[in-house]
Each structure stands twice: as structure tokens, then as C-alpha cells.
Design a protein that fits this description.
Helices cover 36% and strands 31% of the residues. By secondary structure, it is α/β, with parallel strands linked by helices.
Length: 172
Amino acid sequence: MKQAYLLTGPPGVGKTTLIKGAISAVEQKAGGFYTREIRKQGVRQGFEIVTLDGASAILASVDFHGPHRVSKYGVMVDNLDNVGVAALRWATRECNIIVVDEIGKMELFSLAFREAVLEALDSGKKLLGTIMLAPHPWADRLKRDPRVEVVMVSRTDQQRVAQELQGWLRGD
């Protein structure tokens, strides 16, 4: 059984929903974070980091004009480091399951984030997350790591993936 289970696939197929459902169905201590869209009047304005214990911070916004950009979004690397990376490091020390949603272009601007993901993988604990579908040198190396199972998610196979995820978390 692989130590890390990373979901990939196009946006909107339910990767984050699968992770939230799997975590809520097991009785193991989990920590880390997920990302969610920030919308105003139905229009996406950015992304927010939300830790499993309820802390949050803006990850990216159309209104932020810093040096790190993905499409129309300015990425707030300091917020990722202060909230997301801190949550990953805490989960690596204190939890059975480490959640990182997601390993994507925005997050990969942070060297501390990359280090925290590798620390989580090196911890021997279960790492559950999502990873970008598009090619990226660092993400591609992680996908090839022998400890990592990468699972493609589509709209039609959600039930199968959910069952696999829950079995993996239980140690089946």
C-alpha cells in the first residue's frame, strides 16, 4: 500500500469533495488544509486556504498585484506559508493523516510549502491530497515517487474513487 494518495484531474470534478468525505468517514486524527474558491456575485475572485481546524487566509486574489501570478490571480505566498504550511507541519507532528489540497501552481511558488510536503511524505504518515494535472517539474517528480499513488478523478468515477480512498485510509 502506498503512503500518499494524490487525486488529480480537471477542475470541478470533485477532488476536494472526495477528500472531505473520506476524512469525515474515518475516525483518525487529520490535519492540513484545503483550498476553496472565493466568489462574488457568482464570479470567481480568488482562492482561500482553509485548515481542517478552521483557520483561513486568502491564497490568491484578482485584487492582489504581487510578484507571483497565476493567470489573473496574484498569489499571497506569505499567507500560504503562515497558514497552510503551518497546518501541514502541525499535522505532520500531531496527526495520523496529513491533508494537502492542493499541490498546484500557486502553492509551488513557496519553497516552504515544497519542503513541508516532502517532510509530510518522509514522516511515514498517510498523506492525502490533490495535485495539479498539468505538467510541472516539481509536481511531476512527486507523482513519480514510489511512495505516491496518483489517482485520476472524473465526474463518472466518483463512487469508485471514494471507496478506494476510504479503504486506503482504513488500511484495507
